[in-house]
Amino acid sequence: MKRRDFLKVLGQGTAMLALPACAAELSGKKPNKVRPNILFCISDDQSWLHAGAYGDKVVKTPNFDRIAREGVLFTHAFSAATSCTASRSAILTGQQIWRLEEGGLLMGALPRKFPVYTDLLEAAGYHVGYVHKGWSPGNYEVSGWDHNPAGAYKYSERRIDPPASGIGKTDYAGCFEDFLKDRQQGQPFCFWYGCKEPHRTYEKGSGLRSGKKLEDVVVPKSLPDVPEIRSDMLDYYLEIEWFDEHLGRMIKLLEDVGELDNTLVVVTSDNGMPFPRAKANLYDLGVRMPLAVRWARRAAGGRVVDDFVSLTDLAPTFLEAAGLAVPPQMTGRSLIDILSSDKSGRVDPRRDRVFTANERTTWCRPNGAGYPGRAIRTHRWLYIRNYEPDRWPAGDPDIDAEPEGVYGDINAGPAKTYMIEHKDDPKVAPLFELGFGKRPAEELYDVAKDQWQIHSLADDAAYSKVKTELRSQLEQYQRDTKDPRIEGKSPWDYYPYYYGGSVKQAARPGP
Asked: d(Cα 357, Cα 365) in Å, to the nearest integer?
């Protein structure tokens, strides 16, 4: 079916229940005389700490900082998942990953039956497009899509010389300019700025050559504090700055055409930094995200909000901002009430927790098995449930998983190499065990006292009541949102894994 034909029948089927309501609202009286534009900006593999607005003195992010200063800075925003594809599926659908079948996996496929905000906005008259990394990596065609779920039209023609060889040559801001030129006069737009950076690989030493200093880096306590890792983090910072530079150019383009104040600008990332015990993990370094939102027409600026928000909240936010009904399948909750408030700190008392998840990421265990987990995070506590504690959480040490090597759920790079090569050193060994070793079925951290979530209290009798309460809250949410894990089911074990031109799939056990 052609895309335009599909949009004409978008209201058919249970997955598109919201569209008739949307169409009715848009064909009659509209809540907003001028519908807002939406500029969604997502970096690739950036933990929340690494932006100037959060206090980092080394990485330079003046444009993220401007959005935070003129809008709302969220201190407790979390991705729904620990890796790219699943996180992006959750953002587009506004649903937890366990509700999305193979859409909850890295290198998976997003079933066409799940409504995405981009299609709903296009059906309502928005000009919709994206640049570079939209929903990815995986195979969307096998699920019936004739376009990337991030947008019908990809803009990728512009090229620019980057400051380091690890950085792609896509001129993201130039592509955004082309996108703006293609829309009809007065047409609202929705653009997905999908930056590749700071995803590995990095040009080794590029951060140092840019003038940054090793001694200025704040190394997370879960990593060895050595020059090799400090330098690796500087390379990571340089790529964050590339993302921020293009963000600034996009803001300037909107200012030049007088559209900035009517544009809902959202800047975030998909999951945490590509270092051990960060990306592909349910600790804060893996799922706690930078998030700044500017919408001058509706959101009072200069505010810092401590409420817990999930990136699943973005899809319903975009739809509500456009005056559209939110599909009942979406588990995310619109942020419009927070954006419309003039309060800082804790605004909505109901937003006192968030839920995150992990399923299979790379094919780095026998038969492609994943390391499934669920977590609940509050202002004081992090509780993690690991469903397969006998498996290696970072991937098997004797499986060479393309392209990451052994311990394949950790991206290849200097930090990983250093820790493997020095795993027997007395100062590195405990951190190697934290990042690469096996973990118990339950973990519990007092994040108020243990920022880096290093000392689990799950086996301490003094905290048994806290652990029981958090486990109960997590399990109740899983039941409410129909997580197969709560019923002992694991359908993700048998979904295909699409990498490059190949497909892998574990065989289901016989009767």
From this structure: 19
